[in-house]
Write a structure and sequence with these properties.
The protein is α+β, with helices and mostly antiparallel strands and 467 residues long. The chain has 15 helices and 14 strands. It has helices at residues 18-31, 59-65, 90-96, 102-109, 135-145, 157-170, 175-198, 205-218, 279-297, 305-322, 330-335, 404-407, 410-415, 422-426, 458-466; strands spanning 36-39, 73-77, 80-84, 113-115, 222-223, 228-230, 250-255, 257-258, 267-272, 393-396, 399-401, 433-435, 438-442, 447-449. Helix 7 (175-198) runs antiparallel to helix 8 and helix 9 runs antiparallel to helix 10 (305-322). The longest helix is centred in the middle third of the chain and has 24 residues, at 175-198. The radius of gyration is 24 Å and the shape is globular. The relative contact order is 0.11.
């Protein structure tokens, strides 16, 4: 008797319920009455067409469709969704096995109808859209709409209005999105615990990275961004893992899981390779932790995120003055952006379906209407500048870094020459970078730290590593 082949089924993914998806679509139609087309995107080839990078559907598509379809388009109007995608080819079954046809997919995502992609231009000319992430899909957008499609910050007309509407809807998360983010956070906490425990026997950064990402992959998740696991913590987005680990090093790990439906977590911890912080490392870590804790304590509805950032800057400046690294009045130092010599980035960002949520829309989501980025050294990298609202999720991630490109820059060196005790700073040469990052939901009256299960205190980290 020959074995029977299973029928084509959708890959099981914790998608939102149809009721949740319909509510999201209706919310969009309530604030944007024109028709909308959203493209999921395509996988990009690594070197030849059949060898592709892992596919990640467009986040706006995921939010309203709930399932990571490839090479699909949806037409939204009046809260109703129509699916456009081609059925799998006969040749595809040889390599990928039986796959569901579009009618089955349409039923799964709550689409009212499903058609092949070739039918799309019949009703597309009057629709608004957002730019897809890959080149071939962008070309398809232009050919279908009969016009060029540009990134949201440069978009005009209906495309710009759509981007604004989407940013308003996605800014505060519904219960389904928050549940996914809690799941991503729980797995990310376990990944960081695994990294700390693996460090004493690891020889290279890559060993620790492997221990952390193994936890994520074992839960059928992927990383939400390229992991940062480095002894060169002064390199803010360091994606190299070849350095050896030495007992005097600090290891900075910025690693986050992404659920199968696309929701992200984002955690950073910094720990000593030896399992014990040196006195100098302990002193600077305590300053970063004080800023981290104070900022989280202030999170509640109505608070301006810019003020959270400035609070972190103030505490960093106070701590560096107390250590003798900076000279002067901390408030004046922040006004002069002297703290940014060591804390150059913003204190955090929005978090959701993307690790920097909706940053493909530029500052439409991160900045309140009418606000623009500052050109100040200490504020120009602030990614979020608006009052906090319930069910927004933000990161809090102050840091201390000795970045050669800043500290050895002749202009900055001249400007801040008398405000920095350079001889005293040299006594902290074993601290290249420290960052502490958690994910925080704004509640109706305060906040909830989604990643609170992972310790930040020095004693707790040392105990976890040595325990």
């Amino acid at each position: 008797m020959s074995p029977s082949s299973p029928g084509p089924t959708l890959i099981p993914i914790a998608s939102p319920s149809l009721e949740v998806l319909k509510q999201r679509r209706q919310r969009l139609s309530d604030v944007f009455t024109d028709p909308v087309l959203l493209w999921s995107g395509n996988a990009s080839a690594r070197n030849f067409p059949a060898n592709v990078y892992p596919f990640r559907a467009n986040s706006h598509f995921l939010y309203f469709v709930g399932y990571p379809l490839q090479n699909a388009v949806v037409y939204l109007e009046g809260g109703r969704l129509t699916l456009y995608m081609d059925n799998p080819s006969a040749a595809s079954a040889l390599w990928h096995g039986p796959e569901p046809e579009r009618e089955a997919i349409a039923h799964h995502i709550g689409a009212s109808a499903a058609f092949p992609l070739a039918d799309l231009p019949l009703r597309a000319q009057d629709a608004a859209t957002v730019l897809a992430q890959d080149g071939p899909t962008q070309q398809h957008q232009g050919s279908v709409l009969g016009r060029s499609v540009v990134a949201a910050p440069q978009a005009e007309g209906l495309d710009r209005e759509l981007a604004i509407a989407i940013s308003q809807i996605r800014l505060c998360h519904d219960a389904a999105g928050l549940e996914e983010m809690r799941h991503a956070a729980a797995v990310t906490v376990k990944a960081h615990q695994a990294g700390m425990r693996a460090t004493p026997t690891a020889s290279h950064e890559s060993d620790v990275r492997a221990a952390m990402e193994r936890v994520i992959l074992a839960q059928n998740m992927t990383t939400a961004y390229s992991s940062i696991v480095t002894v060169q913590g002064e390199v803010l987005h360091n994606n190299h893992y070849h350095h050896r680990l030495s007992p005097g090093d600090l290891l900075l790990a910025d690693v986050g899981a992404e659920t199968a439906s696309g929701w992200a977590a984002d955690i950073t911890r910094t720990w000593p390779v030896s399992g014990t912080f040196s006195p100098s490392q302990r002193s600077l870590y305590a300053i970063v932790l004080a800023a981290h804790d104070a900022c989280i304590a202030e999170i509640k509805p109505g608070v301006e995120y810019r003020e959270i950032h400035l609070l972190a800057a103030q505490i960093m400046a106070e701590g560096l003055v107390d250590l003798g690294i900076l000279r002067g009045n901390p408030m004046d130092l922040v006004e002069q952006d002297a703290h940014a010599l060591f804390f150059p980035h913003g204190v955090g960002h929005l978090l959701g379906l993307d690790v920097h949520d909706m940053e493909d829309l530029g500052d439409m989501a991160g900045y309140a209407p009418g606000r623009q980025r500052s050109d100040r050294f200490g504020l120009s990298y602030l990614r979020l500048d608006r009052p906090l609202q319930p069910n927004m999720v933000v990161t809090i991630e102050p840091g201390f870094y000795q970045v050669p490109g800043i500290l050895q820059n002749p202009d900055w060196r001249s400007r801040y020459q008398t405000l920095v005790n350079w001889d005293r700073l040299a006594e902290f040469a074993d601290v290249r970078g420290i960052r502490i990052e958690d994910d925080v939901r704004v509640t109706e009256t305060g906040h909830e730290v989604l990643t609170a299960a992972l310790p930040t205190a020095i004693a707790d980290i040392e105990a976890l590593m040595n325990g």
